[in-house]
C-alpha cells in the first residue's frame, strides 16, 4: 500500500526536520526566559555548525572513529563555538545595554560572512580540485538504517527507529532536560523571574546579569548544536547558510508560547510542513500539482496568524528585550 | 514656520511648554543651542568609532589570513582602488551606479526607525518591488520608452508598499512585534516571488535559472551620465535616489506628517495623548518604508548594467545586457545592508546618503582586492562589525547627551531660572502636540 508507506515516510522525515528546530527553539526559550531576545539564532547556528563540520572533516580524514561517537563529539564542538559566539550578544545586550535586535542582526550578518570567508580561504587545502568553494563537504555516514529490535515494531518503528540519526534521540533528551530545568529547578525559576520582572528578582538577591548571561550562553550552545544537527541531517556539506532555520525556530518559539511542551508540538507541526513540502510527490494524486513552495512558506504564514490571534494574551516573558539597568530600580 | 502669534501664551512659565514655536523663547536659549551642536558631534563621533572598529577588525582578519598582502590590499580597499588603471572614472561610475538600491533600503529602514519601528523586512519589500517591476517590464513590453520604465518603477513602489503593509497593519491593530512579522514576510516574499517567476510565462529563463531579459524600453534611463563615466553602470536611479533622500528629509523635518511619525517614534503613549493616531502613523510609516524599499528593488532589476560588449563609435554610452535575479532560496542582502546603512547614518536621510556612499565604496574596494587573493566576504565582515558597534554607538551618544543634560540643568538651576523645556526631546515634542490639538 503505497499511500500508507508515503505517510510513514513523511512522518519519518518530519521528525528529522523537527529536531534541529526543536533544539534551537529551546535555545531561544532560555534566552527569552532570561529577558534577552536572541534574534541571532540563525547566525549562531551557522557559526556553530561551521566549526562542527570542520571538526568532523578533520576527524574523518585522520582517524577511523565510530561515526556515532564522532557526531556526539562534533556536537560538543558546535556547542562550544555557539556559546563563544553568543557571548558577543550577551556582552552587547546585557552589559552594554545595546539594542538587542540590532546586536543580534549584526551577529546574523557576521556569521555567514566570516565562515564563508574562512571556508573559501581553506577550501584549496581541503580539496585542491575546488580551490574557491564555500562548501565544506564531509562524508555522510551518520544515518542509522535501523535500530535492532525496536525497528521491527510496526508503524512506530518505521517512524522513529528506521533511517534515523542519533541526534533525534539527543533532541528528545534535551527537551526533557530543558523542561525539567525551566519548571523544576531553582535555576530555571530564577531565570524566568529575570525575564518577567528583573527588578523584583534583583530585590530578592538574584544576580540578574549573571542569570541573563547563563540564559544567552545556554541558547548559544543549543543553537550551535541545532545548527550542526541541521547540516548533518539535511546535507552533505557546510554551505554557509542554514536556510532560515534560526528564524523558523523563533517562529516555533512563538508558536509554542515559550512553553517546552508546546514548543515540541510546534516543532513537530513545522517539521511536518517541511517534510511534506519535500515529499508530497510520494502521494500519487499530488505528483502533478507543484505545491512544495506553499508548504515551505506555510509555517511563516501560520506564525503571523498565531501572532495576530494571541497578541492580546501573549505568554512572552514580560521584560524580554528590555535591558536591565540596576540604577533604574 | 509654526510661529502663529495667536497661539502664543503670555504667561512666561507656560510659554516654555505651551509655545508652538519649535525653539521656545524662555530667555535661556544658549545651553539649548549648544546642546544640539554637541549632540550632532557626539553622534558623528559614535559613527566614526563604529566605522573604525569595523575597519580594524577587517584589517586584523586580513593580516591573519594573508600577512604579506594585507597592507597593500587594505589600502586598495579603503580608497586605493580608485587609482587602479582598470578603475578611474569607470570605477567611480560603477560605484555610484551601485548606490541606488541600497540607498533605498537604507532609507526604508531609517524612515521606520524614526517612527520607532525596526523594519528588518526591507529585503522582502525589496524583493516584492523587484518582482512587480519585472512583471510590468515583461508583460507590458510594448509600451514605449520611458513610460514603461516609469510604470515599472510605480509597480515596484506598489509591491514594496504592499509587503510593508502587513507588518504595519498587524503592528498597528494587533500590536504584533514588527520584527517577527518582517522576518516572516521576508521568507513568504522570497518563496512567493520565486514560485511566481517560475510559473508566469515569460519571466523565467530556465536554462540559466535567472529572470528573463528586460527590454531596453524598461531600463533605467542613463540621461547622459555615461558620457562622463564611460563604460560604467551609472544611470538615473542614482540621481533619483539622492533626490528622494533629500525629499524624505523634508518630509520628516518640515511636514506635519513627518512630525507626527517622529512623535510616535519618540514616545508612543505621549503621542496618542496628544491626539496623534498611532495606528495611522505606524501603518503610514511602514507603507512609505515598503514603497522606498520596493523602488530600490525596481531600480535593481531595471538597471541595464555596463555596456561592455558593443564596439563602435558610441561604445560605452549605451545600455548593457541588463541585470537578473537568480532564483535561489536566499533572502536578498540589500535589506540587511540597509540596516547597516540606516544605523551608520543615524536614520537621518542626509546621513544615510553618506553612509551609503561609504558602504558601497568599500564594497567596490572589496571587489578589487580579489587580485591579492582576498575574498570579497571581508566587506560583509566589516559591515557586520560596524552594525555591532553601532548598537552601542547609539548608547555612547546617549551617555554623552545625558551628561550634557545634567550639566545644562545644573547651569539653569544655578542661574535661578525656571528649568528650560526638558532637554529630553520626547517631552518637548509632546508638549507641542498637545497645543496643536488644542488650537484646532
Describe this structure in words.
The complex is a heterodimer of chains A (329) and B (440). Chain A is mainly α and 329 residues long. Chain A has one domain: ABC transporter involved in vitamin B12 uptake, BtuC (Orthogonal Bundle), CATH 1.10.3470. Helix content of chain A is 70%, strand content 3%. Chain A contains 12 helices and 4 strands. In chain A, strands 1-4 form a two-stranded antiparallel sheet. A two-stranded antiparallel ribbon of chain A has the order 2-3. Chain A is globular, with a radius of gyration of 20 Å. The N and C termini of chain A lie far apart (66 Å). The mean pLDDT of chain A is 89. With 440 residues, chain B is mainly alpha-helical. Chain B has a domain of 288 residues: Orthogonal Bundle (ABC transporter involved in vitamin B12 uptake, BtuC), CATH 1.10.3470. Chain B is built from 17 helices and 2 strands. In chain B, strands 1-2 form a two-stranded antiparallel sheet. In chain B, a hairpin with a 4-residue loop joins β1 and β2. In chain B, α5 packs parallel to α10, α7 packs antiparallel against α13 and α11 crosses α13. The radius of gyration of chain B is 24 Å and the shape is globular. The N terminus and C terminus of chain B are likely disordered. Chains A and B meet through α4, α10 and α12 of A and α7, α8, α14 and α16 of B.
